[in-house]
Amino acid sequence: MVHSGGRPLASLINNNFERLEQVPNSSHRYYWKCRHCGDTDNSSGARIQGHDNNLPNHLIKHCTNAVALLRQAARQFIMEKTGAPTDSNAILTSLAASGSSTIAAIPIKKHKASNLDGYIDRPLSKEQNNLANAKLLRFFIHANIPFHVGDDVFFHEFINVIRPSYHIPSRYVLSRHLLDSEAVRVQQEEINRLKDRKCLTLLLDGWEDLLRRSLYGSLAVEVNHPPVVLALENMTGQRGTAENLVAVSQKAMNHMEVGDGRKFIAVTTDNPTVMQSYHCRNNNTVRNK
Questions:
Q1: Of 43, 71, 108, 242, which alpha carbon lies 20 to 30 A from 61's?
Q2: For 37-47, how does the pLDDT look when each residue is reduced to its tens digit (9 = 90+)?
Q3: How many CA atoms within 13 Å lie on the side-chain side of 262?
C-alpha cells in the first residue's frame, strides 16, 4: 500500500493500521484504523486521522492491545522520523572520536578569516543540526519559553549573528515533531531505568489546575534514586474513588511497562479511607492475575 503521492508506507504503519476513507478536505490525508484495537467498542483506534505522529502515538499511549515491543518500535519510529539523537552525550563522544573536521568545530562556531566581516560560517552537519534542535527544544521547555518564539524575527536575527547556517525550527516543528520525539526519548530512558529497580513505591495524588481540571499524577520512587513520573491522568468529572484510582494506577504502570506491579512494595496517597479500599481492590486484582 502507498500514499496517493506514491511514497511507500513505513512498515510500522502498514503492519499495524488499516487505511480508511480520505479526510474530506484538501490535505490528501486518510483516516486509519488500528489493527489491534480498532474493532473494540468505543476504541480510540477505530478512526484516527493520519496526521503528524497520530498513528505511532496511538500505539504508545492509547492502544490497549499493543505489546511492549510494539510500543518501543513506535517510540523508535518517532525519534528516527525527526533524526533526534537518542543519547546526546554518546553522539558527541562518537563524533569527536571520529576526527571529523565538522565535529571538531562544535565548540568553535566561527573562525577568523580575511573576508570583510573577519569571520566565516561553517555549515552544520546533519548530526549537528539534529543535536542543536534537540538542545533548543530542551532549553525552551526548561526555561518555560513559549514555542512561538521560534518564529520571532528578533530571535532569528540573534541566531543569525551567532550561526547563520543554523535554521531555527518553526513553532509547528517544535511543538509537534520535535516535542513528540523528545517525549518518547525521555519515556524510553525512564522505562530502561525502571527495569533494574525492584523496591519501588507508587505515589498517587490529585489536584486541580488553573482550568479547573481534575488531574491525578502517579510516580515511582525509591530511596537514593530520582523519582520517575509514570503518568498524568485527566479525571475531570470523575470521583477519586478507590476503583478509579486502581484503574488510573494500572494504566500508568502499563504505560511505563511495569504493569504487573511486582516491582512495587508500597502505595501511598493522601486519603486513608480510599487507601484502605484501594489496598483491598488492588490485592484482589493481583490475585486474579
A1: 242
A2: 999 888 999 99
A3: 5
